[in-house]
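Sanity check. The docking grid for nicotinamide-adenine-dinucleotide depends on where the pocket ends up, so I'm generating a full predicted complex first rather than guessing from homology. Inputs follow.
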Amino acid sequence: MAQAPPTAAPEDAPATPEDALAIVEGVPIDTRHWIDGTRVPSASASTFTDHSPMDMDMDMDGAPLARIARGGPGEARAAVVAARTAFPGWAATPPAERARLLHAVADGVDARAEDLAAVETADNGALLRSHRRGVMPRVAHNFRYFADRLLALGHEDFDTRGHTNHVSWDPAGPAVLITPWNAPLMLASWKVAPALAAGSTVVLKPAEWTPLTASLLADITHEAGLPPGVFNLVQGYGEEVGAPLAADPDVCRVSFTGSVPTARRVAGAAAAHLVPCSFELGGKSPLLVLADADLELAADLAVEQYDNAGQVCLAATRILVEEPVRDAFLDRFLDRVSKLTQGDPRDEATDIGPNIHPRHVERVDGFVRRAVEAGAKAVTGGGRNTALGGNYYLPTLLTDVAQDSEIVQEEVFGPVLTLQTFPGGDDDEAVRLANGTRFGLAATLVAGDRDRAARIGARLVAGTVWVNCFFVRDLSAPFGGSRDSGIGREGGDWSFDFYCDLKNTVTAPKGWTRHG
Ligand code: NAD
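Predicted complex below; grid placement will be based on this.
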């Protein structure tokens, strides 16, 4: 899903001074990069246009939200140099002081939560009520959690023939953090907070479709008192500014969330300098409904997979139902879908907003059209919401899909689910279907018999398995995916393991001599 930079005007047009300021939902936003504690335009003075998914139509002539400074190799290098220069001071800052500053960032997020929520909804089209009640509190919590965790970080010393082993987490160096558009500030803060807590300085590169809240975060870090160069922000297209960041020899860590093809490019660039990467990638997660499941719960959890118009990496997009309860489950599911409200994401009553971009909607629709051509049946949805127009795609469920078909194997990243069945009592077949893609991000099981659920869950290839629940995510838990869904785990102490160089110091006992 990486975006090719556009080649034509108006996006290449030189910036005017007014381009540096956007007003979105009444919130002023400086749209220049944030490097070494100051706002800078691109050296080339070029910008790109940021649109809102709420009012873009298929010919992409929706009103622009903002003109954003468009970075390239020069801005990437300047940001890395700033991060490199600031690193020794930040790494030497006592943990209590780093933690205090991160709490100040969290306070800033709390104070600006309403602005952040409104701007995020305008930029990525996800529900305002989710941003207000769930996302922005979580963003602040990310900073508070990793600040507190830093102060608790430690490993008990241990003994080797009288020698003491002491494990420490040494800050590794500048980290490049590259994020996608589906949950912009949530995912940025999930990387920025642990990296800064760990004593790394950072360069954040947000997705080109949703750069706005990252820019507000730059202001918040500044107001919180972070020293210049500790947090840097460069904006622009992946190939133009993301690629040179990943390839920079002064970078010590790359944490990337996005698609598998882009991850391959990032890994290739980072490999030149053997820079450790953390990859949180796509998914095609199963939702298994066992015959003794609470079917009301199963239907509730299945409908939840349309959250954020299906643009959630963890979404359980493949519903696998035990044959005897297929129809009873489907009735309940369709009843719930019929009650969903699709529309303006700022409206409290809305359940499903728009998808991110006309090009993305086209891609989603292509998957559905090809699936139907191959024999799938759309039992609900199956196309654009023509009443709403724009980027609104109907919540869709496809049945009669083959396990090896494109629609079952590929991540659609839209409001499109598939339904398959497995024979009653056939756990082997349930596991075969559940594990039968190249992904392994998450899995959800709905079951009455917890022992059976545990037996099946133990056989699933997934970074997270939920039983009779979904999206319960504790920051202390390891998070990540297996197979093509990622490399490594972040969360809790695993984040510190990634952003630090672990060191073991072995000290001989007092009076010990080699020959004595
Ligand atoms: P994407 O891979 O197109 O882009 C992600 C980021 O990479 C963007 O900031 C982009 O500008 C940048 N980029 C593009 N080319 C680059 C290059 N050559 N070098 C460096 N950076 C480059 O992904 P997307 O479409 O923005 O996001 C959707 C994908 O993200 C889906 O696959 C989704 O499942 C995944 N995702 C995963 C998680 C997770 O935690 N596992 C969370 C959210 C999204």
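Relevant for the grid: The mean pLDDT is 95.
Also worth noting: The pocket of nicotinamide-adenine-dinucleotide is lined by residues 1-2, 178-182, 187, 205, 207-208, 237-239, 242-243, 246, 257-259, 262, 265-266, 280-283, 313, 411, 413, 441, 481, 486 (CB under 6 Å).
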